[in-house]
Amino acid sequence: MSKQKTPRGLQDHQAAANLRMVRVSPQKLNLVAHMIRGMHVGKALHALQYSPKRIAVDVRKTLLSAIANAENNHQLDIDKLHVTEATVGQSLVLKRVDFKGRSRLGRIRKPFSHLRLVVSEVEEVA
């Protein structure tokens, strides 16, 4: 006897991609994620390509992965895809010591983040 197959967490017209353990603070990643929420994937890719933020390159790769998952794994139409979810989560934080003058210490926090992008096929309304 084997255990039951886990049901799919997304609906049939959705596909997802994850970016985990990326070395940027969740606050900075959320600025870029907020920029593309609800956008058509073509406009989102264009916005990420010309964004001055450093993390936009990794978010663009994750969005391309979500589009490829939608096309190859779930046979969705690329022209109808929209970014429906872009959630950011906090991962671990490395804590380092910064030595100050007069025998004092400071703390340096090096945060990591997670990103989950969900694209879904939306029917265009005329």
Task: Walk me through this protein's architecture.
The chain contains three helices and three strands. It is α+β, with helices and mostly antiparallel strands and 126 residues long. A three-stranded antiparallel β-sheet has the order 1-3-2, with helices on one face. A hairpin with a 5-residue loop joins strand 2 and strand 3. Helix 2 runs antiparallel to helix 3. The longest helix is centred in the middle third of the chain and has 17 residues. The model has no long low-confidence stretch (mean pLDDT 95). Keywords: Ribonucleoprotein, Ribosomal protein, RNA-binding, rRNA-binding.
Strand order of the largest sheet: 1-3-2
The CATH class name reads Alpha Beta
Instruction: Tell me the fraction of residues in β-strands, as a range.
Output: 35-45%
Rounded to an integer in angstroms, the radius of gyration calculated over CA atoms is: 19 Å
Shape summary: flat
How many strands? 3
Please estimate the helix content. Answer: 25-40%
Subunit structure: Part of the 50S ribosomal subunit.
Keywords: Ribonucleoprotein, Ribosomal protein, RNA-binding, rRNA-binding
Pfam family, one: Ribosomal_L22
InterPro entries: Ribosomal_uL22 (IPR001063), Ribosomal_uL22_bac/chlpt-type (IPR005727), Ribosomal_uL22_bac/org-type (IPR047867), Ribosomal_uL22_sf (IPR036394)
Key terms:
alpha+beta, Ribosomal Protein L22, Chain A, three-stranded antiparallel β-sheet, 3 helices, flat
Concise description?
InterPro entries: Ribosomal_uL22 (IPR001063), Ribosomal_uL22_bac/chlpt-type (IPR005727), Ribosomal_uL22_bac/org-type (IPR047867), Ribosomal_uL22_sf (IPR036394). By secondary structure, the chain is α+β, with helices and mostly antiparallel strands. It contains three helices and three strands.
